[in-house]
Amino acid sequence: MTARYAVALILPQEVEDLLNRLRGVHCSQMTFISIPHITLGYFLTDVELTIVKRAIEQLAEMTVPCTLNLNGIEYFEGDLNTAYVAIENTEPVISLRLKISEHLQRAVGTNIGEHSDSYCYHPHVTIGTNISALAFPAIKEMLSQKGVRLEILADTLALGSIGDDGKSRIESLFKLLG
Length: 178
Description:
Blueprint: E1 3-10, H1 13-23, E2 37-45, H2 49-62, E3 66-76, E4 82-87, H3 91-108, E5 124-128, H4 136-144, E6 149-154, E7 156-162, E8 168-175
């Protein structure tokens, strides 16, 4: 049976505190995952979960934690209307994503797939998404009054499974030990 998974970089508690402050009174007007993270990608596989976990664990053992600079608030406008914290130095995240994709290809015969040929990976930390067109201007106005500048150490990978209902569940966490 084919299973759908996601790999994400889990961020420290200080980022969760920051995101909660940024969401403020508009929290109910947006969708978000409570665990602060940067999604690295999704993949499908028929391989057993224990083998997938071992592959991610091996990768984490060889991977050095990365320092990221969060700086500013930006937006994806359109169907999902998303507010996010920008990452100033995206190279460590993009490099890790490529490393994971290559490792998964070797270990389980699949890699991090793209949504379409025109998909362009843009690392970010979501504040909230699925914001209604009606609420979006007020949320943007509120967020424009808040400054974001934070240096963090990202040292944990998460492997999550995605059920048929679309809900995610963390299967395992892996410390970056390289």
